[in-house]
Amino acid sequence: MAPVARKLVGAWLVVGCLMIFVQVILGGITRLTESGLSITQWKPINGIIPPRNETEWQAEFDLYKQKVQYKVINEGMTLEEFKGIYFWEYFHRLWGRSIGVVFLIPFIYFLIKKYLPFKLIVYLIIAFLMGGLQGVVGWIMVKAGLTGVFVPPLSLSIHLTLALILYAYNVWLALWVLRGPGNYFISGKKLKGFGLAILILLFLQVFLGGLLSGTHAGLAYPTWPDMNGQAIPAALFSEHASWAGFLAYIPQDLWVRTMVQFLHRFTAYTLIILIGVFFYKSRHITTDRVFKTGLTLFPFFVLLQATIGIITVLNCVGKLPVTWGVIHQCGAMLLIAETVFVIFHLYSKADKQPA
């Protein structure tokens, strides 16, 4: 790629990463404020325009009143209160559509200008399809949630995990373009597998985090380092093991809440150890300054995320802490970007970069 093309395409991909970052934040706010079921219809085109007058607002509110969530937890809600939860879901959907526009228009322009090598075109089409799939999965999730009080935990977790996979993929593409051909390729088969294992485990942790949020598991054990005074909670063995709590929100299902939070904590500790070992083994393998800077930040980001997670858990008293929950989600995205940055250099050769 010519230097001008590389800069323009790279900047465009970075903007895409930032927009996905914001979209995940909006999704977290929507979820934690219990706003996700406020829009009861999927209108990809005419849904861009929100209600414009009191009559249209009342019509939307009447549709929501027919749903289980309103009847169980929001009965008596005023129209103004409804507008508050409607805003977050609407903004979340609108931002998702905006990502599609910001992707498609420059993509067409770059094709016309012949700025994109064939391999990158294929990768970008895959990214576009992944984004479309994410929108469809989001609506399937909402549709399933409209039959109950909340979105099913498993559906929510799948939606979140797919969003962060898309985010990681776009971070990789941005690095692929911006770093360009260079002598930063780092050999080492063991480190390649080690880095990939960390990334896979990190996505498992994201999946568990989605389940934790969907089951409201944080409310069951708002303590650290123990879980209500126990290192291994007795409920894992005393409560009836059931998978029903993953498929629908069941506040009485203590076993599911216990299992999800216990696994989430255990995986967090495992990630801290693995990233620490990875950093120790990798710290002298290259003199590339960009890579060494990213590698140095690796243990910092995982410890920061763990600290935020602890603060979030300690604030899960009576209700889910929206602010800390969103900050924790931001920390997860920073850690994912950092992990992708590190393993990118282990898998990318100069001759595989866009010419």
- Terminal CA distance: 5 Å
What is the CA-based Rg, rounded?
Answer: 22 Å
The percent range for helix content is: over 70%
Q: Return residue spans where pLDDT drops below 50 for at least 5 consecutive residues.
A: none
The class by helix and strand makeup works out as: mainly alpha
SS element count, helices: 12
- Percent in strands: under 5%
* Order of helical and strand elements: HHHHHHHHHHHH
How would you characterize the largest beta sheet? none
Overall average residue pLDDT: 91
| Number of E-type strands | 0
Shape: flat
Q: Which SSEs are present, and which pair or pack?
A:
Layout: H1 3-32, H2 54-65, H3 68-74, H4 79-113, H5 118-145, H6 153-179, H7 189-215, H8 235-238, H9 244-247, H10 254-282, H11 289-314, H12 322-347
Features:
mainly alpha
What is the compact description of this entry?
The protein is mainly alpha-helical and 355 residues long.
Q: If you had to describe this structure to a student in words, what would you say it looks like?
A:
It is a single chain. By secondary structure, this protein is an all-alpha fold. The protein has 12 helices and no strands. It has helices spanning 3-32, 54-65, 68-74, 79-113, 118-145, 153-179, 189-215, 235-238, 244-247, 254-282, 289-314, 322-347. Helix 5 runs antiparallel to helix 6 (153-179), helix 10 (254-282) packs antiparallel against helix 11 (289-314) and helix 11 (289-314) packs antiparallel against helix 12. The termini are close together.
